[in-house]
Amino acid sequence: MLKIIPLPDAAEPYRAPDLVWDGLAGDLAINRLDHVEAPGDLRAEQGLATQVLICLMTDRRVEPHELPDGVANRGWIGDSFDLGPDETPLGSRLWLLRRSALLEGIETIAETYASEALQPLINQGAVTRAVANATVNRVANRLDLSVSLYGRDGAQVFATKFEILWRQIDGVDRPLAG
Protein backbone atom coordinates (compact mmCIF):
# COMPACT_ATOMS: atom_id res chain seq x y z
CA MET A 1 0.00 0.00 0.00
CA LEU A 2 1.09 3.53 -0.70
CA LYS A 3 1.61 5.34 2.59
CA ILE A 4 2.20 9.06 2.84
CA ILE A 5 3.56 10.16 6.20
CA PRO A 6 3.39 13.86 7.06
CA LEU A 7 6.68 15.06 8.50
CA PRO A 8 7.06 17.48 11.39
CA ASP A 9 8.42 20.92 10.54
CA ALA A 10 12.17 20.74 10.16
CA ALA A 11 14.90 22.82 8.58
CA GLU A 12 15.46 20.27 5.81
CA PRO A 13 12.59 17.79 5.59
CA TYR A 14 13.15 14.59 3.68
CA ARG A 15 11.43 14.64 0.32
CA ALA A 16 11.02 11.50 -1.67
CA PRO A 17 12.59 11.67 -5.13
CA ASP A 18 10.37 12.49 -8.09
CA LEU A 19 9.48 9.89 -10.66
CA VAL A 20 9.28 10.53 -14.36
CA TRP A 21 7.11 8.38 -16.58
CA ASP A 22 8.19 7.50 -20.11
CA GLY A 23 4.85 5.92 -20.86
CA LEU A 24 6.05 2.41 -20.14
CA ALA A 25 8.10 2.65 -16.95
CA GLY A 26 8.84 5.08 -14.17
CA ASP A 27 12.33 6.17 -13.17
CA LEU A 28 13.89 8.48 -10.62
CA ALA A 29 14.26 12.07 -11.79
CA ILE A 30 17.69 13.72 -11.71
CA ASN A 31 18.35 17.45 -11.36
CA ARG A 32 20.05 19.17 -14.25
CA LEU A 33 23.75 19.89 -13.77
CA ASP A 34 23.03 23.62 -13.58
CA HIS A 35 20.54 23.17 -10.68
CA VAL A 36 21.27 25.81 -8.04
CA GLU A 37 20.93 23.68 -4.89
CA ALA A 38 21.68 20.11 -5.91
CA PRO A 39 23.20 19.64 -9.37
CA GLY A 40 23.00 16.06 -10.58
CA ASP A 41 21.18 14.94 -7.41
CA LEU A 42 17.81 13.23 -7.21
CA ARG A 43 15.02 15.73 -7.95
CA ALA A 44 12.38 16.10 -5.24
CA GLU A 45 10.09 18.89 -6.37
CA GLN A 46 6.94 17.15 -7.58
CA GLY A 47 5.90 14.94 -4.68
CA LEU A 48 2.19 14.94 -5.43
CA ALA A 49 2.73 14.35 -9.15
CA THR A 50 4.97 11.41 -8.27
CA GLN A 51 2.28 9.93 -6.02
CA VAL A 52 -0.33 10.32 -8.77
CA LEU A 53 1.96 8.48 -11.19
CA ILE A 54 2.46 5.67 -8.69
CA CYS A 55 -1.27 5.43 -8.04
CA LEU A 56 -2.39 5.48 -11.68
CA MET A 57 0.47 3.88 -13.59
CA THR A 58 1.27 0.99 -11.28
CA ASP A 59 -0.70 -2.07 -12.30
CA ARG A 60 -2.99 -3.21 -9.52
CA ARG A 61 -3.41 -6.91 -8.95
CA VAL A 62 -6.98 -8.03 -9.66
CA GLU A 63 -9.23 -10.95 -8.85
CA PRO A 64 -9.09 -13.82 -11.37
CA HIS A 65 -12.70 -13.21 -12.49
CA GLU A 66 -11.75 -9.64 -13.55
CA LEU A 67 -9.13 -10.83 -16.04
CA PRO A 68 -9.97 -10.97 -19.73
CA ASP A 69 -9.50 -14.40 -21.28
CA GLY A 70 -5.85 -15.28 -21.81
CA VAL A 71 -4.49 -12.31 -19.82
CA ALA A 72 -2.09 -12.91 -16.93
CA ASN A 73 -2.57 -11.05 -13.66
CA ARG A 74 -0.27 -8.14 -13.00
CA GLY A 75 0.64 -6.02 -10.02
CA TRP A 76 2.52 -6.70 -6.83
CA ILE A 77 2.07 -10.29 -5.74
CA GLY A 78 2.13 -9.21 -2.08
CA ASP A 79 -1.18 -7.42 -2.54
CA SER A 80 -2.87 -10.78 -2.94
CA PHE A 81 -1.99 -11.97 0.57
CA ASP A 82 -0.29 -9.27 2.65
CA LEU A 83 -2.84 -6.48 3.09
CA GLY A 84 -3.52 -5.15 6.56
CA PRO A 85 -7.04 -4.26 7.72
CA ASP A 86 -6.81 -0.60 6.61
CA GLU A 87 -4.71 -1.17 3.49
CA THR A 88 -5.72 -1.23 -0.14
CA PRO A 89 -3.85 -2.75 -3.07
CA LEU A 90 -1.31 -0.51 -4.79
CA GLY A 91 -1.98 0.92 -8.22
CA SER A 92 -4.87 1.03 -10.64
CA ARG A 93 -6.90 -1.31 -12.75
CA LEU A 94 -6.53 0.97 -15.79
CA TRP A 95 -4.30 -1.68 -17.36
CA LEU A 96 -7.41 -3.85 -17.80
CA LEU A 97 -8.66 -1.31 -20.35
CA ARG A 98 -5.49 -1.40 -22.43
CA ARG A 99 -6.91 -3.58 -25.19
CA SER A 100 -10.52 -2.52 -24.77
CA ALA A 101 -12.51 -0.96 -27.54
CA LEU A 102 -13.72 2.55 -26.81
CA LEU A 103 -17.28 1.39 -26.30
CA GLU A 104 -20.09 3.36 -24.67
CA GLY A 105 -19.51 3.59 -20.92
CA ILE A 106 -15.74 3.06 -20.96
CA GLU A 107 -15.36 6.62 -19.62
CA THR A 108 -17.23 5.63 -16.46
CA ILE A 109 -15.06 2.55 -16.00
CA ALA A 110 -11.84 4.56 -16.44
CA GLU A 111 -13.05 7.21 -13.98
CA THR A 112 -13.94 4.51 -11.45
CA TYR A 113 -10.55 2.83 -11.79
CA ALA A 114 -8.70 6.16 -11.49
CA SER A 115 -10.74 7.31 -8.47
CA GLU A 116 -10.18 3.96 -6.78
CA ALA A 117 -6.42 4.24 -7.41
CA LEU A 118 -6.25 7.80 -6.03
CA GLN A 119 -8.21 6.96 -2.85
CA PRO A 120 -5.04 6.24 -0.80
CA LEU A 121 -4.05 9.91 -1.23
CA ILE A 122 -7.33 10.87 0.45
CA ASN A 123 -7.09 8.15 3.10
CA GLN A 124 -3.60 9.30 4.07
CA GLY A 125 -4.64 12.97 4.26
CA ALA A 126 -2.46 14.21 1.39
CA VAL A 127 -5.57 15.65 -0.30
CA THR A 128 -9.24 15.88 0.62
CA ARG A 129 -10.75 15.16 -2.76
CA ALA A 130 -9.73 13.60 -6.06
CA VAL A 131 -11.65 14.05 -9.29
CA ALA A 132 -11.00 11.94 -12.39
CA ASN A 133 -12.76 12.79 -15.65
CA ALA A 134 -12.45 10.58 -18.71
CA THR A 135 -13.46 11.60 -22.21
CA VAL A 136 -13.40 9.53 -25.38
CA ASN A 137 -12.50 10.75 -28.83
CA ARG A 138 -13.61 7.82 -30.95
CA VAL A 139 -12.44 9.40 -34.20
CA ALA A 140 -8.88 9.65 -32.86
CA ASN A 141 -9.26 6.31 -31.01
CA ARG A 142 -8.18 7.75 -27.70
CA LEU A 143 -9.27 8.09 -24.10
CA ASP A 144 -8.22 11.20 -22.20
CA LEU A 145 -8.07 11.22 -18.41
CA SER A 146 -7.94 14.44 -16.39
CA VAL A 147 -7.03 14.29 -12.71
CA SER A 148 -7.55 17.09 -10.19
CA LEU A 149 -6.69 16.97 -6.50
CA TYR A 150 -7.91 19.37 -3.83
CA GLY A 151 -6.43 20.42 -0.48
CA ARG A 152 -8.04 21.03 2.91
CA ASP A 153 -8.99 24.59 1.98
CA GLY A 154 -10.83 23.35 -1.12
CA ALA A 155 -8.26 24.81 -3.50
CA GLN A 156 -6.97 22.74 -6.39
CA VAL A 157 -3.44 21.57 -5.54
CA PHE A 158 -2.80 19.37 -8.57
CA ALA A 159 -4.18 19.00 -12.09
CA THR A 160 -2.94 17.11 -15.09
CA LYS A 161 -4.32 15.51 -18.19
CA PHE A 162 -3.14 12.21 -19.52
CA GLU A 163 -3.93 13.12 -23.08
CA ILE A 164 -3.58 9.85 -24.93
CA LEU A 165 -3.95 7.25 -22.23
CA TRP A 166 -3.65 4.22 -24.47
CA ARG A 167 -0.49 5.53 -26.16
CA GLN A 168 1.03 6.59 -22.82
CA ILE A 169 0.50 3.14 -21.38
CA ASP A 170 2.15 1.66 -24.47
CA GLY A 171 5.26 3.82 -24.12
CA VAL A 172 4.79 6.45 -26.82
CA ASP A 173 4.37 9.70 -24.90
CA ARG A 174 6.29 11.00 -21.88
CA PRO A 175 4.04 12.80 -19.37
CA LEU A 176 5.86 14.57 -16.55
CA ALA A 177 9.25 13.73 -18.09
CA GLY A 178 12.07 16.19 -17.59
UniProtKB/TrEMBL annotation:
It comes from the Bacteria. It holds the Pfam family GP46. InterPro entries: Phage_Mu_Gp46 (IPR010877). This is Phage gp46-like protein.
